[in-house]
Amino acid sequence: MRATFLYGAGDVRVEDAPDPTIQHPTDAVVRVVRACVCGSDLHPYRSMQATVVGAPMGHEFLGVVEDVGADVVTVRPGDLVISPFAFQDNTCVYCREGVQTSCVHGGFFASGDVGGAQAEAIRVPQADGTLVKPGVALADTDDAMLASLLTLSDVFLTGHHAAHMGRVGPGRTVTVIGDGAVGLSAVLASKRLGADRIVLMGRHRSRTDLGVEFGATDVVAERGEEGVAKVLELTGGEGSHVVIEAVGLLPAYEQAYGLVRPGGTISRVGVPQYEEAPVGFRSLFGNNVTLNGGPAPVRAYIEDALPDVLSGRIDPGRVFDRTLALDDVSDAYRAMDTREALKVMLVP
Description:
Elements: E1 2-6, E2 12-16, E3 28-36, H1 42-47, E4 55-56, E5 61-68, E6 80-83, E7 86-87, H2 93-96, E8 107-108, E9 121-124, H3 127-130, H4 143-151, H5 155-165, E10 173-177, H6 181-192, E11 197-201, H7 205-214, E12 218-220, H8 224-234, E13 240-245, H9 250-259, E14 260-268, E15 290-293, H10 302-310, E16 322-325, H11 329-337, E17 344-347
Parallel strand pairs: 10-11, 10-13, 11-12, 13-14, 14-15, 16-17
Antiparallel strand pairs: 1-2, 1-4, 3-5, 3-9, 3-17, 5-6, 7-8
Helix pairs in contact: 5-6, 6-7, 8-9
């Protein structure tokens, strides 16, 4: 099969690789129908040291089951399935508490001996706990529906996780920092959860225009202190009940605690590119601000979101603004790295 490997910063290649096979009775082998490049994939793409052994890439995919292990009972060959970006048994103590990304028997795709999803096929450990059937067959879906179903593997539900952890709901003002695919997904999720006002902080017009269509009531292009001042002005000096930080850089976090209102919540889902962040009196403690967030336990949210996607009530697949063949994956990384594309979908 063909699969994507990263050999160092800017060096992404599609190569022939062994076909995945059942290694454990709880495995499934899935033929990938749609995959994509994640914003988090750009971090190693920009900084990974050169290596003679390529690292498998990709963790978001939609596919059709081709084979299952002897213990798998919930999916069969031919089923269209959504996979979260992490695999899990969905029965351990952490899974039962809704934190599937900490599953004691789980892990992440493109890690260890588990291949990446930017490929023609992939082995899925813990298939019963991981794979979700959307209730439709591949033959009954069009490209737009496949795109929206694909967002349930990560990007839309990462935005939802941020809103959920921030306790977004009616009567709340939400500010989303970042106009990438996760930030825009957080706007859509906040609208779905009933937020009264949604401020999107971003400066790329094509992206913020989509954010407005997703439900943003205000757009703030300014950053740093100017951006904080603008949001405070929009909120009558009170600040935002919920601030969703969807960037992962320290200046974005500092911006977040500058505009959250007393008693509010900062919800982080941008993968942090720093190890330490202020949590003292001036940043969080003095105003009783809650800080939460983390890797989205996507498996906990898929069934809840599916009806709204299948009915067309929400269309999160609109974050994909470019589709490329798997063999053109290097162009996909380049386009996202240079901001020519918001999010690229891959068709094996």
